[in-house]
Q: What sequence folds into this?
């Protein structure tokens, strides 16, 4: 089918070209009903915006930058899908930059984007032990809007789209306790990251609510190396055979826990119950199926992009008040089953 242009789309809808253009760009002066009607027909007719013509008229790059630590984590691949949906509907391209958890790479990428290569930036920050986020000031000075998602920094006055990390950390730990675990290890990543801090706070609060004192020996941080992580988990489980529960803050640590338990002959869930934050599509196919805190990754990416484009399209400054916290879901599977209540 031959794609339609903006003028043909307007004719089909019985609206002016200007109205259709503003509806597609989510302008505040167009009603939601009209926006929905325009987008529905645009999708039906496979309307493709012309980013080059638009960029010439508006002196914009028609590109946004996305800075993330990795794509191997399923959370980020889903978030990027949500971002791209919004970018595409606005006639924009997406440039993805990977920091690989290196702070200096993040600084270099921000300086690169500060050159005017993009009209806005979405960021999930890298490990930053110094808590120095001054490089993002460069973008503010150039009036390049920034929205943070998932891994955020409190010191920057910008919108943030996150999940309920504290509540989810509490629920994950509470679930293990309800299933009979009493010596629960917590496997996390860099302590400088907002998600690590909030999830651990939830873990500590759940233990305290059950009258269980925090044991620092049960806290293990990832080395960002699978082989090292498996060895560290094996060593901990060998030293502390009383560990009967594992709460992994990230899915990579859950996978390393599975391998460590298998190597040691520790049965999941009979000997050790495992729960993890994870958007892994095959979580239900693992042996045993992994109980997860599943984040709304796609929606987090989409909402972060939607907020960013409100600023880009309407040329309005962003506000911290635009921040959102979306709810994650506890999905109970066999890895946390009790003997009396198999999953």
A:
């Amino acid at each position: 089918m031959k794609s339609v242009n903006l003028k043909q789309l307007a004719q089909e809808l019985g609206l002016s070209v200007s109205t259709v253009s503003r509806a597609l760009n989510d302008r505040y002066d167009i009603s939601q009903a009209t926006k929905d009607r325009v987008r529905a027909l645009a999708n039906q007719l496979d309307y493709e915006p012309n980013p080059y013509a638009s960029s010439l008229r508006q002196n914009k790059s028609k590109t946004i930058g996305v800075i993330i630590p990795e794509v191997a984590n399923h959370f980020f691949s889903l978030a990027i899908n949500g971002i791209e949906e919004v970018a595409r509907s606005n006639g924009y391209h997406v440039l993805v930059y990977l920091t690989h958890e290196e702070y200096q790479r993040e600084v270099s990428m921000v300086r690169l984007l500060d050159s005017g290569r993009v009209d806005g930036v979405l960021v999930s920050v890298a490990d930053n032990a110094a808590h120095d986020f001054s490089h993002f000031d460069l973008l503010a000075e150039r009036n390049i809007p920034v929205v943070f998602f998932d891994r955020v920094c409190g010191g920057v006055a910008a919108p943030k789209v996150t999940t309920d990390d504290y509540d989810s950390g509490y629920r994950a730990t509470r679930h293990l306790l309800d299933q009979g675990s009493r010596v629960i290890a917590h496997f996390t990543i860099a302590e400088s990251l907002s998600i690590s801090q909030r999830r651990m706070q939830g873990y500590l609060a759940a233990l305290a609510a059950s009258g269980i004192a925090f044991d620092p020996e049960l806290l293990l941080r990832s080395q960002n190396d699978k082989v090292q992580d498996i060895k560290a988990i094996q060593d901990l489980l060998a030293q502390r055979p009383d560990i009967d529960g594992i709460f992994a803050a990230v899915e990579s640590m859950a996978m390393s826990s599975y391998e460590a338990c298998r190597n040691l002959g520790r049965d999941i869930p009979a000997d050790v119950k495992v729960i993890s934050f994870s958007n892994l599509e095959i979580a239900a196919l693992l042996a045993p199926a992994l109980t997860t805190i599943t984040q709304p990754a796609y929606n987090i990416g989409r909402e972060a992009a939607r907020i960013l484009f409100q600023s880009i399209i309407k040329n309005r400054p962003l506000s911290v008040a635009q921040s959102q916290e979306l709810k994650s879901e506890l999905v109970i599977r066999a890895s946390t089953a009790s003997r009396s209540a198999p999953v």
